[in-house]
């Protein structure tokens, strides 16, 4: 059950701040993050590793939500950082994030991105394919430098999640396949290049996982191959990166596992498998994104128009929608929401919450019970901290909303709202 904090006036609280005040001071739509929640998630992952006593890194997957303040927060919490583009790397550089704690993922890193990352001196490339291995070797040569790498292995195991975000199965654009000898060839090739240090292996099963058994299965599968690679190539992994994907609660029906449960399963399986193979216990890395920031974010919207179709649906439109949260339209993702500006009253009716984009599919929630909603009411949609702002667009030339961090009694703008001038910044008038 999701219980949200309210003050004596019955207004929703984010940290110790009244959501109505936030909406008045900034604007709607806006993203408000409760920084205490981000910190506590980061600490839960770290604590779980400390308790099982193993060398580890928790790398925040910044694709879930990246901005300079967020990267600074990740640093304060002692996290490493997973980036997947030159843009995410640039953000990390602007935030003064220590480059040796940056890992670079992605299935089509460009030569330019590889060069930028080598120049920046990042800690590790998670190499996805042979093309990247060649680019990396060439660029190491050009820059007279070396690179630490993990190889991304596709263990051929599906997480039970939406197919768009399931990444570990046999038919995947990511990684070196185990079943057809690609992974072994990649190990051999990496070991043969003197400018490349093969530190270990990486896999990522999928996102929004609610069970640990897929992780155990993936690790067991991987180790059956690692055994052979030791015999054939003398390879001993110093790092196993088990990826991210740890599920969170979007609605009261989601019952996510604690960070501890995932970490314990991963570490336990890796210890058991390396013991069975008489291999030293490697460092264990993970790269959670959603589970660090997802539940910490709330989107505040103002309710505008309504349209009731008797016996069919009662539409309530808000001042944002798919441009700040594409997940319902793209994945059929479900969210919960409440009126933030009202004393909690008995829900009166089921509403369909529509976005403002010119697209019938721009719906945020299809069946939300609420007290009678009026134009001007403030609607808070919960658990929007991951892949909300990060996937926002300017469709319909809607400016992107501001992002505000709240911590206890303080709040601060961390991403400015876009304005109309921002929308035409890159436009050039016709002159031919
Ligand atoms: N590591 C790798 C290699 C990944 O591909 C991903 C996510 C993560 C870590 C972080 O996963 P997380 O802990 O955040 O679940 N836009 C989709 C999610 C795409 C996830 C892509 N990869 C969504 O809104 O659900």
- Give the terminus-to-terminus CA distance: 61 Å
Beta fraction: 15-25%
CATH superfamily of the largest domain, by name, is Alanine racemase
Supply the helix-strand structural class. Answer: alpha/beta
- CATH uppermost class of the largest domain: Alpha Beta
What is the alpha-carbon Rg in Å? 23 Å
**DSSP helix count?**
12
Q: Please summarize the sheet with the most strands.
A: 9 strands, mixed
Assigned CATH architecture of the largest domain:
Alpha-Beta Barrel
Number of strands: 20
Bound molecules: ligand LLP
Number of domains: 2
Overall average residue pLDDT: 96
Proportion of residues in helical segments: 25-40%
CATH topology-level fold name of the largest domain = TIM Barrel
Flag low-confidence runs. Answer: none
* Shape verdict: globular
Modified residues (N6-(pyridoxal phosphate)lysine): 63
Keywords: Amino-acid biosynthesis, Decarboxylase, Lyase, Lysine biosynthesis, Pyridoxal phosphate
Active site: 358
GO molecular function: diaminopimelate decarboxylase activity; pyridoxal phosphate binding
Describe the structure.
The modification N6-(pyridoxal phosphate)lysine is found at residue 63. GO terms for molecular function: diaminopimelate decarboxylase activity; pyridoxal phosphate binding. By secondary structure, the chain is an alpha/beta fold. It has helices at residues 19-25, 35-52, 68-76, 86-94, 111-120, 130-143, 182-192, 213-233, 259-276, 290-293, 327-331, 420-424, and strands spanning 13-14, 17-18, 30-34, 56-61, 80-83, 102-104, 124-127, 147-154, 176-177, 196-202, 239-241, 283-286, 297-309, 313-318, 337-339, 349-354, 363-370, 378-382, 403-407, 410-415. The strands form three sheets. Strands 3, 13, 14, 15, 16, 17, 18, 19 and 20 form a nine-stranded mixed sheet that branches. A hairpin with a 3-residue loop joins β13 and β14 (313-318). The radius of gyration is 23 Å and the shape is globular. The N and C termini lie far apart (61 Å). The mean pLDDT is 96.
């Amino acid at each position: 059950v999701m219980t949200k904090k309210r003050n004596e006036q019955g207004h929703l609280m984010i940290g110790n701040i009244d959501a109505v005040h936030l909406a008045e001071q900034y604007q709607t739509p806006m993203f408000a993050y409760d920084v205490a929640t981000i910190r506590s998630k980061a600490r839960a992952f770290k604590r779980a590793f400390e308790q099982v006593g193993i060398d580890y890194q928790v790398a925040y997957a910044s694709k879930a939500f990246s901005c300079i303040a967020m990267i600074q927060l990740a640093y304060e919490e002692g996290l490493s950082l997973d980036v997947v583009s030159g843009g995410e790397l640039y953000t990390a550089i602007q935030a003064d994030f220590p480059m040796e704690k940056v890992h670079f993922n992605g299935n089509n890193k460009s030569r330019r991105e590889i060069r930028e990352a080598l120049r920046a001196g990042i800690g590790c490339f998670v190499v996805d394919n042979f093309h990247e291995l060649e680019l990396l070797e060439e660029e190491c040569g050009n820059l007279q430098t070396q690179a630490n790498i993990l190889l991304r292995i596709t263990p051929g195991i599906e997480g039970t999640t939406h197919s768009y975000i399931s990444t570990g199965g046999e038919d995947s654009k990511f990684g070196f396949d185990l079943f057809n000898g690609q992974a072994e060839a990649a190990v051999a090739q990496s070991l043969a290049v003197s400018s490349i240090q093969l530190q270990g292996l990486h896999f990522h099963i999928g996102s929004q996982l609610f069970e640990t058994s897929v992780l155990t299965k993936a690790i067991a599968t991987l180790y059956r191959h690692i055994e052979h690679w030791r015999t054939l190539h003398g390879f001993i992994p110093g790092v196993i990166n088990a990826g991210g994907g740890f599920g969170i609660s979007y609605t009261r029906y989601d019952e996510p596992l604690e960070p501890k449960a995932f970490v314990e399963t991963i570490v336990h399986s890796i210890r058991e498998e390396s013991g069975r193979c008489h291999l030293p216990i490697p460092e264990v890395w993970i790269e959670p994104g959603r589970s660090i920031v997802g539940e910490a974010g709330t989107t505040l919207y103002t309710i505008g128009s309504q349209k009731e179709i008797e016996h069919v649906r009662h539409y309530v439109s808000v001042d944002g929608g798919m441009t700040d949260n594409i997940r319902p339209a793209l994945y059929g993702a479900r969210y919960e929401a409440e009126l933030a500006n009202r004393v909690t009253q008995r829900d009166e009716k089921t509403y369909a919450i529509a976005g403002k984009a010119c697209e019938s599919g721009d719906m945020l929630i299809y069946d939300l019970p609420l007290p009678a909603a009026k134009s001007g009411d403030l609607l808070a949609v919960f658990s929007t901290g991951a892949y909300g702002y990060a996937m926002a667009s300017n469709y319909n030339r809607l400016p992107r909303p501001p992002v505000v961090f709240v911590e206890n009694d303080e709040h601060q703008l961390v991403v400015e709202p876009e304005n109309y001038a921002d929308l035409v910044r890159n436009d050039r008038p016709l002159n031919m």
